[in-house]
Design brief:
- The structure is a single chain.
- By secondary structure, the chain is mostly beta strands.
- The protein has a single domain, classed as Jelly Rolls (Sandwich).
- The strands form two sheets. Strands 1, 2, 3, 4, 6, 11, 12, 13 and 15 form a nine-stranded antiparallel β-sheet that branches.
- Strand 11 and strand 12 form a beta hairpin.
- The chain is globular.
- About 10% of the residues have low confidence.
- Bound molecules: calcium ion (2 copies).
- One calcium ion binds next to strand 4.
- One calcium ion (CA) binds next to loops.
- Keywords: Signal.
- It comes from Rarispira pelagica.
- This is Alginate lyase.
Length: 261
């Protein structure tokens, strides 16, 4: 009898482990912008940065651009990580550019010919360090209002006219914001009034889009739907920290990125 129970228990355990172990290529129910579960999205890319070489400025699966102040760091060296030991640190030490971590959604090598997905989802974790909130840094080139972390979803290309969705963690208000208006218009960002975060904390952020609208889910609360800046689909995901003409000693961190389409 005991032997039988042991065999059944082991079988159940194996079933459970098998069900939990498969992620890449799996499908899951998706909530579309009407709030109902009607479609299915497939996980097409995920990374926790644990397999990347420490100190690398080009983690596996990302696009090599002209400037990338994005570095694989480790909690063993005192840096934050959401899962495991490693994450991506985004800084801005260039007076002519800013940090970027770009994923071409289809895994290709050209941002201008990326496959456009008219439905998809990106989920990630983000962290702003305490320096992002310091307003009196002695570095005169530093603009303390620009120590924000952006995620911009573009169509073909990564110019302002290619924007489809643009959100940011805004350091001076400690709120999540989304851009409204035309893709090339003024920097009009709108607060998610209740989407307040703290520095030195990991935030879970998910954006899900369809052919005309998108939702943002921030630390478990859903905001939207909002209109896309333009229709036609998303081809490139661009994490950015800082401002082109300025530098800062502040840092942001990103970990556990998942992309579905
Ligand atoms: Ca990690
Ligand atoms: Ca800069």
């Amino acid at each position: 009898m005991k032997h039988k129970i042991l065999i059944i228990s082991m079988a159940l355990l194996m079933f459970f482990l098998t069900a939990c172990s498969s992620t890449t290529g799996s499908s899951e129910a998706s909530t579309d912008t009407t709030g109902t579960t009607t479609s299915s999205l497939t996980l097409s890319f995920s990374t926790d940065f644990e397999s990347d070489t420490l100190g690398s400025t080009l983690p596996t699966g990302f696009y090599s651009g002209s400037f990338a102040d994005a570095t694989v760091v480790s909690s063993n060296d005192g840096y934050p990580a959401h899962g495991g030991a490693q994450s991506i640190q985004l800084g801005d030490t260039s007076a002519s550019s800013n940090s970027k971590l770009v994923r071409i959604l289809d895994g290709g090598s050209s941002t201008s010919t990326a496959t456009l997905y008219t439905a998809g989802r990106i989920k990630f974790y983000a962290y702003l360090d305490a320096e992002c909130g310091v307003q009196n840094n002695s570095n005169t080139a530093e603009d303390e209002t620009q120590e924000n972390l952006y995620l911009t979803l573009y169509n073909n290309g990564t110019s302002s006219g290619n924007r489809v969705i643009d959100i940011r963690l805004e350091a001076s208000t400690l709120k999540l914001q989304h851009r409204t208006g035309a893709p090339t218009g003024d920097l009009t960002y709108v607060d998610e009034t209740n989407a307040v975060f703290n520095l030195e904390n990991w935030n879970e952020i998910q954006i899900e889009w369809d052919d005309s609208q998108y939702y943002i889910t921030f630390n478990g609360t859903q905001y939207g739907p909002y209109d896309l800046l333009q229709t036609g689909g998303v081809g490139n995901a661009y994490f950015k920290f800082g401002q082109s003409g300025l530098v800062t000693t502040a840092k942001a961190y990103v970990d556990d990125i998942e992309i579905y389409n």
